[in-house]
Amino acid sequence: MRRLSRRAAAATAVLITSALSLTGCGAPGEAGGSDSASGKVEGQVTFQTWNLKTHFKKYFDGVIADFEKKYPDAQVKWVDQPAEGYPEKLSADAAGGTLPDVVNVSPDLAYPLAKAGLALNLEKAAGKYRGEYLEAAWQSHGMPGLQGVYAFPWYLNTGPMFYNKDLFRKAGLDPDKPPTTYDQLFRDAVAMAQKSGRKIAMLASTPSIEDFGRYGVRLMNAQGTAFTFNEPRGVDLLQHYKELYAAGALDSQALTAQAESAGRKFEQQSVAMNPGSALDLGNFKKDAPSLYKNIGITDAVNNTGKANMYVQGLMVNAQSKVKPAAVTFAHFVTDRQNQMAFAKQVTIFPSTKGSLDDPYFTEEDGTDATRVRVASAKSLKTAVNYTPVLLSDQMKTVLRNAVAKAVQGKQSPKAALDDAVAECTRLLKTG
Amino acid sequence: MARQTALEGRRVTGPRGFPASRTARPFRGSRGIRRQLTVTPWLFLAPGLLIVGGFSLYPFLSTVAHSFTDARTLTAGRFVGGANYQELVHDALFWTGLRNSLLYVLGAVPLLVVLPLLLALLVQRQIPGIAFFRAAFYTPVVASVVVVGLVWVWLLDDRGLINALLEAVGFGRVGFLGDPWLLLLSAMAVTVWKGLGYYMIIYLAALADVPRELHEACAVDGAGPVRRFLTVTVPAVRSTMVLVAALSSVNAFKVFSEVYLMAGPTGGPGGEDTTLVMLVRQVGTGLSGRVGYASALSVVVFVLTLGLMLLVLRAQRREDG
Amino acid sequence: MSAVVDMRSRAEGRTGGGRRMPVRRRRPTGRRRLPTLRYLLLLAVLALSVGPFLWQLSTSLKGPGEDLYRYPPSLVPHEVTLGNYAGVARIIPVWDFALNSLKVAAANVLTNCAGAALAGYALARMRFRGRRTALLMFITAMLVPVESIMIAQFLTMRQLQLNNTLLGVVLPACIGAMNVLLMRNAFAGLPYEVEEAAYVDGATAWQRFVRIALPSVKGTLAVVAIFAFMGAWDDFLWPLIVLSDQSKFTLTVGLNFLHGTFADNQRLVAAGTVIAVLPLMVLFACLQRYFFRGLGEGAVKG
Known about the structure:
By secondary structure, chain A is an alpha/beta fold. Chain A has helices spanning about 1-25, 55-70, 85-95, 105-115, 120-125, 135-140, 165-170, 180-195, 210-215, 230-245, 260-265, 280-285, 290, 325-335, 335-345, 360, 370-380, 395-410, 415-430; strands at about 45-50, 75-80, 100-105, 150-155, 160-165, 275, 295-300, 310-315. In chain A, helix 2 (about 55-70) links the parallel strand 1 (about 45-50) and strand 2. In chain A, helix 8 runs parallel beside helix 10, helix 10 (about 230-245) packs across helix 18 and helix 18 runs antiparallel to helix 19 (about 415-430). Chain C is an all-alpha fold. Helices cover about 65% and strands about 0% of the residues of chain C. Chain C is globular. Chain C starts with a helix and ends in an 11-residue tail after the last helix.
C-alpha cells in the first residue's frame, strides 16, 4: 500500500513537470532580443527550403556564393526538406527551439508561427524593402489580428485551366470555345455527362475554398473573427455542384479527390477539365502524350475578375542569433535579380515589382509554354490569395466534409454550409 | 523414445498463453531460488524498461496531462478540466471513427488469424523453388504502405485494372473508391492482404516448434490432413493464434494509413470512413494542431485498445479454464 | 559445464529437431499428388501478393514518351529502359541515403534482438516480485498511440542533444515492446526440464539464457530481426523530424525528394520504390531458412 502511494506520487510529479515543460516552446517574441535587424551582417545563417534542392541545387549554390562574396563575414548553411511532412517538421522544430534562421513558408504556415511569436515582424525589421515587392504579395503574409508582415514574399504561381479538346469534340462542344463563366461551365459539364453516358466528367473535384473565393463568395468578415462562406452566393455555388454530381458531371471519386488524384484523372482522360500550372505541360508531354496532342488551355473561370495566387515566402526566425544576417539574406534571395534568375529555371513568377513586365513574361514566341507563362503573368498582376490564412487544415477538412454531405444530398447546401461556418468559427475562437 | 520425450515435453509445458498465461511459470517448487534471483531479472529487464519507459510511457504521461488542457502545437495550454472529453462525446466524427475502427477489427481480425496460418502451412514444406515463393509472399509486408496505397488505388480506380477486367468479362464497373462502404471494405482488404505475410512469419516461427512426431503419430492413426490440422496444428499454435489475434486487433483498431491513402485525408466522402487514429492526426498535427483535444482522443484510443486486448486474452483464458 | 552442453543438444533434439532427424519418407500413396496442388495454390497466392507490384516495376522500366495513363492499362513497357534507375541515382545521393538507412536498420536489429530477448527471457522464465508490473509496462507501451507522443519524443532527443543524429533516429524504437512480448511468448513455449537440470547443475541465469534458451528460439529471433529491420527501413515521419541535414537522411526520407515541388516524375518515383523494397526482399530471402526448421524440412530433400 505504502509503495503504491509512493508510485502514484511520483507519477503525479512527472505529470506536472511534463505539462509545464512540454508546451514551453520559448517565450514568444521576447527571446532573442529586439526585433531590430540592424547590425553587422555576420555569422552563420541556416536557410531551409521546401523540396527545392533536388532540381535547383545549382541555382541556390550560386545565390549563396554571391551572398557570401558580398558579405564576407556571413556564411549560409542550406538545408532542404522533402515534400511530405513539412508542417510536422516545422512543428517539432518550433516546439524544440530548433527552427532555422530563414525558413521557406506559405502564408498558412507562417500564421501560427507568427502568432506564437516565432516569426520576425518584417514591417518593423525590414520595412525599407517593402517598396520592392508587389503590394498584394507583400500583404499576403500579413496576419489578421497581428500587426505587421511576417515573411518576405517569394515566388508566386497561378494556373490556367487545362481542358481536353478531344473530349469536348466528342461531347458536341466546341473545342475552341471552353467555358469562361460559371454558367457556361455548369451547362457544358451537364452536356458532357449526358453525351458520354456519365462516363466522362467535366471536373474531378468538389469546390475548395479558392473556388468559393473565385465564385465571389465573401469568405470571412472584415475583422477576421468569423467565417461567412455560408452567404447566399456560397449556397448557390454548392447547389450547382450538387446538381453536377447528380448529373454525373463530377467524377465519381470527386468527393475524396486531392490535387494529385484529380490530375491523374485528367491524364487518364476520364475528366475533361482540370486546373493546373504552366509546369504541367511538360508532364503531359512525358506521361500522357495522347492527351498532350489534344490539350486546350484557358483562363480559370472566375466571377471576380481576379485570379487566385499561390505565394511562397521566406520567414525570419524571431529567435535567430544572427538576425541582421538572416534578414539581409532573406531579402537577398527574394530580390528582383535572384527571383528573376529563379523564374528562368522553372516556371514560377517573381513577386518583385516590375519583374512581370520583363519581356520574358510579356512576349510570346508561339509555343504553348510561353503562351501559358505570359497569360499567367498577366493575371498575376491583379491576382489575390483567396485562401484565408486563418483557415487551418482542420477547418479545410470541415469544409470538405460539409461539401461532400451537401453534394451527396445528405444535407441541404444551406444547412451544410451553416454547420461548417459555425464549426470553423468555433475552432477559430478556441485557438 | 525420442517421440515419447517430446510428447512429454508438450504435456508438461501445457497450453502456452500470451501474455499473462499461468503456465509460463518458472521452476515450480524451487521457492528457495527466488530470493537469489531478485537482482538478475531486473538486470535482464533494465534495457527494455528504460527504453520503453523513457520513450513511450513517460511521453504518454504528458499526453494524458495535455488532454486536460487546451494546448495547441505552438501555444501552451490552460487547464480546462474534462472539457476535451466532453467535446469528444458530442463530436459526431468521434462516433463515426469509433464505429469504423470497431468494424475494422470485426472484419479484418478473423481473417488475419486464420489465413496467415494456412499460408504458413502452405509454404512450410521444403519443395523445390519454395524459397522464391516465401520471399515473394513477403513482398506486400516489406513494401512501404505508401506504395501499397498507390498500387491499390490504381487497381481499384474506376479506370483501373480490376474494373478493366470486370468490364472485359461483362460485369459493369464498380465504384470501389467512390462509395463510403466499398471504400472501407477495400481498405480492409488491403490491410488483410498486407498482413498475410506479416503474421505468416509469426506462425512459421511457432510451427517450427511443433514436433513432427505429433503429426506422424496422427498420420499413423490414419488421420487426414484436415483432421491433423485441427487436432495437432491448431492446438499446438493456439497461443500464437491468440498472440496474432491480440496484435492484429490492436493494429486494426488503430488503422490509419490504408484508409488515409484510399479514402483521402478527410476519411472518405464527408468523413464517413474516418477512423479514430485518423481523427487524432487530423485534429492534432500541423502548426495549429489542437494538441489538447488530440491528446484526449489519444487517451481514449489507448484505453479502448487496452480493453480490446484484455478482451482477447479473457476469451483465451476462458477456453483454457 | 559439460552437462549443460549435453542438455542443450537434448533440448534441440526436442524442439527444433527436424534438422537432426534422419529423413523419413511419408506414406507414398496420396503424397505424390499433393505437390501439384500445392504449386497451384502457391502460384495463385503469388499472383495475388506480387501481381499488384508489377505495375510499379513496369512503370519504373517505361521509357520517356510512353503513355502511363492508357485505358485499358498496359502492364508491359514498350521501350524497356533502366534509365530511370540511373536517373534516381543522378538527382539524389541514393547510396548515401541507403547507407544511413542500413546503419539505422542494422543497429535497430541488434538492439531489438538483444534487448527483447533479455527482457522476454526474464518475463517468461524468472520469478520475482514485480514481474506482472513489468509485463504490464510492456503491454501498455505497445498500446501507446505514437501520433500523440512524437513531439514529446523530439523534445527529449533535443534535451539529450541527439537531434540531427542517427542515434536519435534509432533510440526510441531500439527495443520494441511488441518484440519483447514475442520473445516472451517464444521462451514460455520451451520445455522446462532442460533448464531445470542445468539449474541443478549450477548454471547461472546468464548461462542458461545464452546456452540453452537462446539457441532454441532462433526462429522468433529471426522474426524480431526482420520486423526491426523493416520498421527502421520504412519509417518516415520520425527520421524526418529528428534529422535536419540531408547528409544524414535515411532512404525513405530521401526518396521523398523524388516528388518534385513543381512536377512529379512518375517513372523516377516508381524506380525509387523498387530500390527501397529490394534490400528487404533480399534480407528476407536470406533469413527465411530460419523460419522453416520444423516439420517440412528434409521431407522431400531425402
